[in-house]
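Budget justification aside, the reviewers requested a transparent look at the raw inputs and outputs of the sequence design task funded under Objective 1. We therefore reproduce one unedited record. The lines immediately below are the structure tokens for a 311-residue chain.
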């Protein structure tokens, strides 16, 4: 019998382009059906194209969902078998989250692709850098945390002008301010919620910071979404964060998942962090897109949290 050659573009997703872009690196690639398997020195990532659970959505038809999963090695799995520790590790996330599902631990990211979308100029570099360095950057930051090794430094390629551009859009739909290498916006979670400064307690806080280097990658753009919901019970909070990270991997109508849920600055509230390394600065519009994804993420997470009884 003849072995069927894998579809180079399953459901329209150009896995062949990703594979070609990885050829100059030291990573080894192969195809298994609608998945691209990428072998790192000690880890194996699986980039899989799957159909959506429900193709018809308010945002338009979904054509495909791309998941990136990198199982953690056994020695690390036993080490991170602690929800609180997973949260601490995920607070240093770049483009994916340490996720537990049914006792299995993996580094995961997801991209939902819509039929009428024309965003491959942003989606491609996001997928590519996540494959190449997403899990390594998180593991490197974790190593530095435990060995007390000094964090990597370096200037960010994002400028005040980049943040001003984001401000010009977000200020039309939210209370938004910029200053130096930072941007802050508030996303109302209810129809009449505008700003915490006005006494509202139903707004999510979104921040972009170009002056906060990543412990492992150095310069870039630190992105932080903080929700106002407070969960005083630490075990329940950790369970909730784990459930949010699991939900992010589902093939649903959700904003791109290139980051991680962890504890916020209040220590009892959920937050979503991601870090765009300098290598992604050339992807035009990526900071604005990340901001719009944060707005959508705040809305669906608020619905989930309220349904679970969080205030």
């Amino acid at each position: 019998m003849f072995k069927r050659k894998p579809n180079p573009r399953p459901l329209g997703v150009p896995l062949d382009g990703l594979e070609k872009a990885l050829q100059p690196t030291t990573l080894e690639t192969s195809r298994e059906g609608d998945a691209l398997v990428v072998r790192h020195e000690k880890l194996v990532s699986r980039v899989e194209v799957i159909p959506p659970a429900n193709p018809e959505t308010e945002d338009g038809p979904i054509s495909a969902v791309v998941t990136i999963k990198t199982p953690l090695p056994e020695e690390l799995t036993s080490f991170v078998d602690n929800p609180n520790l997973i949260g601490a590790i995920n607070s240093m996330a770049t483009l994916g989250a340490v996720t537990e599902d049914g006792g299995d631990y993996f580094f995961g990211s997801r991209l939902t692709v819509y039929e009428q979308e024309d965003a491959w100029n942003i989606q491609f570099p996001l997928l590519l850098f996540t494959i190449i360095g997403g899990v390594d950057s998180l593991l490197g930051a974790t190593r530095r945390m435990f060995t007390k090794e000094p964090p990597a430094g370096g200037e960010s390629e994002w400028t005040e002008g980049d943040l001003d551009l984001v401000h010009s859009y977000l200020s039309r739909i939210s209370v938004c301010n910029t200053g130096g290498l930072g941007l802050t916006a508030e996303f109302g979670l209810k129809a009449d919620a505008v700003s915490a400064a006005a006494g509202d307690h139903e707004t999510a806080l979104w921040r972009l910071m170009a002056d906060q280097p990543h412990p492992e990658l150095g310069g870039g753009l630190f992105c932080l979404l903080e929700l106002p919901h407070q969960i005083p019970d630490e075990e329940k909070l950790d369970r909730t964060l784990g459930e949010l990270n699991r939900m992010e991997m589902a093939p649903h109508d959700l904003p791109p998942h290139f980051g991680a849920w962890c504890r916020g600055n209040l220590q009892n509230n959920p937050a979503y962090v991601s870090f765009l390394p300098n290598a992604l600065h050339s992807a035009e519009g990526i900071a604005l897109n990340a901001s719009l994804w944060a707005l959508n993420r705040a809305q669906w997470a608020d619905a989930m949290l309220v349904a679970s009884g969080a205030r």
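The mean pLDDT is 91. Residues 232 and 268 are 6 Å apart (CA to CA). Computational costs for records of this kind are itemized in the attached budget.
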